[in-house]
Amino acid sequence: MLGSTKVTYNCLRGCGCCNFCRSGKPHFCSMENDSTIGIWATFIVAPVNRIHKVPENVSLQQVILAKHLSHLVNGWDIAGPITISMNILITGAGILGTLWACMLHHQGYRNVTISDDNQKKLNVLRKMNTGFSLITWDKLKENQKTTPNNYFDLVIESSGDPSVMELALSLLQKGGKLCCCQMASPNVECCMHPFEVFMRELSIFGVHENCFSFQMAIKLIGAMENRYLNYDSLKIKIFPLKQYQEAVEAIKRGTVSKVVFSLD
């Protein structure tokens, strides 16, 4: 590659020797990822097998989302097959939930409901004109009581809230799947009923890392482009590093979904 070629770096690594690595699951390897190496550097030395070329139509701002989208692509593979007729619920409208909504809409899915208690986050999705149903968690609970058979074939849980996970389990259709995509606190617990899991043949799984899905995420960015991955639409804001306190406050207030720091 020429010196001016745009590239990005997959921080996921494995030892190459353990059972997980040799079984094609390096994301389960106990070796820590090097996601903090060179984080403020102007250049780094990296193994060539973890360097990915960025397509010409993809900006460096957009490729910052490759880590998130590689996570989603792995979740897509684990949850699959996801058929076009499925009734899908996304709980949590942060950056992960929003990107899930964008990816589903891009793939042609229309029978999607997104739920969050933060109206600002729902308004971000409303302005994206996906046509998806956008409701609060209270409305979701109300619909459960007033609308018979208001069940979902797939719930993508991206809030990390255990009470929302419990609600999501109760909303699953027979044979339904719960995909947990957001990290919850290690100190919280979620109540479930094994009898219901057994009788309704429910599937519950987590998605923590990407597994050979980084390159696919880059191709997905090239396909989605500005229609879905525009920073203004996604409420992603760039801050100078010296304004890191303002950036943290913006995240806490929910006025932005993600912050990106600039060294300029």
UniProtKB/TrEMBL annotation:
GO terms for molecular function: oxidoreductase activity. Residues 97-211 form the Alcohol dehydrogenase-like C-terminal domain. It comes from the Eukaryota. Keywords: Oxidoreductase. This is Alcohol dehydrogenase-like C-terminal domain-containing protein. It comes from Acanthoscelides obtectus.
